[in-house]
Amino acid sequence: MIINKRMQVDTMTIWNERFSGETYVYGKEANVFIKEKASLLEQGTVACFAEGEGRNAVFLAERGLTVTALDNADTGLEKASALAGDRGLEIDVKKMDLTLEAPERESFDHAIMVFGHVPKSSQAWMMRNILASVRPGGVVLLEVYSEDQLDYGTGGPPDAGLLYDPEDILTWIRDHHVLHFYYGEADRVEGEKHTGRCHLIQAAIRIQSSI
Fold first, then answer.
1. Each residue's pLDDT tens digit, 41-68
2. Which residues, 6+ apart, have CB-to-CB distance to 74 below 8 Å?
């Protein structure tokens, strides 16, 4: 896989700048889908990929899970740690560029990714790594914007090359047990950047075996 190094640096700069202020850009409350499906994540370890400022990681830590938040923005991870501390919790944070780095295989009991938008050239590789990071029997929760989100303008990148195709996602998860899959409209009010009716893809997947 070929990655444009300039693009990598620019992306890291964008996210570091976005998370650099005092305001939590996407709010402090967990994503609605994660709240709805959190009961599928039985006690153990959970990796929160592309976690940003930590809202989902902290919510899962409040439920008693041992949480690792992964993101490529130092400023986001710093705010994730601060948010956990404000609530009397601890989470692990790890800087990771998911388009270049892969976590150790079968190193977590569960994983989530919410609005982790990367170029299409990296999406399949990243998704394989996320699925492979979870032990058999564990659950992966995923919510991302579909390509149709361009017609809504209520959040997410304004570039189809950074959005997701539902057929691609179904292809990537087909070797596992799909507990839930949704492609369509929803309402999201998450801080400054995700507000209003949107078009998204959701999946809950039970890992059947290593990939």
1. 999 999 999 999 999 999 999 999 999 9
2. 16, 95
